[in-house]
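Please check both lines for our workbook:

___
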Amino acid sequence: MTSRRDRIRAKVMARVEIVAGPLDTPCHIWTGPTSGNTGRGKDYARMCLDGGTMAVHIVMWVLEHGPIPPRKQLDHRCRTRKCVNADHLEMVTHKQNQRRRDEARRFACEEIAA
């Protein structure tokens, strides 16, 4: 008999495409529904779980590492919002997450200008 954790992981992985990414391990790109393509929280992977809608990267983190403490967030180290590979996530404060986002945007703008 499979555990609930294994069933959830299988449900997620059935909608994942594994592709090369900027880190040493591949990105697990969610091919299912997302939070949409507008607004601040756009393009995050979403799934139905226990009658509610959940962010898939958070589901995968909790499966692999346990609950996220209050005042902590997950940062996609690969900078890919649809990636649900728990190895590409890091628990950070909101301030750290904003700083990393701003640095990534600045770097992307510098590359375009070059």
Remarks:
- Residues 4-113 form one domain.
- The beta strands are 16-19, 27-30, 46-49, 52-55, 73-76, 89-92.
- The chain has one domain: 4-113.
